[in-house]
Amino acid sequence: MTTDAPTSGQSDLAVELRNIDKAFYGVKANDDVSFRLARGEVHALLGENGAGKSTLCSILAGLYRPDAGEMFLHGVPTAFKSPKDALASGVGMIYQHFRLVANLTVAENIALGHPDTGIRLDQKKLQTEAAELGDRYGLPIDPAARIWQLSVGEQQRVEILKLLYRNADVLILDEPTAVLTPQESKQLFTTMRQMADEGRSVIFVSHKLQEVKEVSDNVTVLRHGRNVGGVATADAQTEDLARMMVGRELVLPTRTDTTEAGSVVLAVSGLRVQGDRGLEAVSGVSFEVRAGEIVGIAGVSGNGQRELALGLNGLKTPTAGRVFIGNFDVTEASVLSHMYAGMSYVPQNRLGVGLAPGLTTEENLALKAFRKPPYSRGSRLLPSAFRSEGARQIEEYDIRGVRPGLPIRLLSGGNLQKALIAREVEMEPKVLVLHSPTRGLDVGATQAVRNQALAERARGVGVLLISEDLDELLALSDRLLVLYEGQVVGQMNAEDATAERLGLLMAGEREDGRR
Ligand SMILES: Nc1ncnc2c1ncn2[C@@H]1O[C@H](COP(=O)(O)OP(=O)(O)O)[C@@H](O)[C@H]1O
Ligand SMILES: [Mg+2]
Question: Is the CB of residue 427 less than 8 Å from the CB of residue 459?
């Protein structure tokens, strides 16, 4: 294994992409994009969702072939046939979804695919090397642990070490902080800086301005598949970057007033819910949500959020504890009964759990309300109501791209979410459970969803916001709870909450000294 800093040829340019085009089914994901990456820099690739960041990175990493354009590696024209081919030339990418082998150890995963790694692995040697590499880059790992035992943050470290083990000198990190706590992100930034100082080049993909400001030397902004500008990060104002990214002034809504919350609309006590693998995922959770407040639940994904949501709305029957919607004990009740008792639910998984992908937008909008007027009179369904109600909601909730008669799954993520929220809000619930409601949405749609959550709060609905997005939780919540390994490990009013404090709790640090 060699981990010496790579030495380039004459050029200080590590990578140059010229006039790259790439379309998927006629939609241009990259449109005439040129991009230069210098040796020894952290270069941020900033852009809204769907801007074409992952596509550009995947082209550079050999996963996709561009439709047109040229690529140069250290000044030499290059066309990679595969990610393996790219890595052999020193270009490696960490994807948004990891590609580790769950049953193998950390050390085995790091060595996997290395040309010097034979059929028989010398476990001891591998493990020592992996641990040393981890120490050197501030990425502590247990080399003997198996991947499935690791947190997402730890898996990401393994992915990075895998590239370093192969001595990649161009490292592409596609939205790496999306799965990290603020503290883990800080550590990653230190590692990225270290890699750049050694003469490697790092592409850091993000849509978070603060992070880009914090870690990058230069930033390139993509919008609608086009490169709309590049600047030295130090010279860039956050507001300017935001404007470049979205193409207009942008203010994300936040809660501004503090109102007196009303009566308790959701009461949860001692709730226990099993996870999919028979292990307990929610272990004795208690909290209340009052009318007219937003209660945020923070936590790194996989700490029981999903099971909590399912246990609250009847999709999974709790093994212990009680759930009350107003005065109704719905602990063992069906999903439908939850709905009648006044709970609306916007799941993380929009298509499938949330919407019926094959039905039209109008049908989806009517999916819950069709038993009552204006959709039906007695036992008779009124087809005209589907059209008129559908048209009204599509207009009111600004659902774009609806084509009559075609299935809803053809809508973009943001418009799917607007439709789903429209349907749930139209039920006039007492309690609205939102699970990662803006995940993966562009800024425009995020704005609409946040506004909707605040409007419901203003109408006196009790909103439970389960999210991994700390900015969003801090912007919207009146109160915050932190979920860690199925338990509430902290709660606070919004005034006392900071990203730092939440981050520590999310990482399992307890404020009461217990473990
Ligand atoms: N494999 C694919 N098949 C079809 N469309 C794709 C594929 N990958 C990306 N796209 C589309 O290309 C556009 C850019 O996507 P992407 O590069 O993933 O953006 P970003 O990473 O900036 O969010 C989007 O409209 C997306 O839907
Ligand atoms: Mg992406």
Answer: no
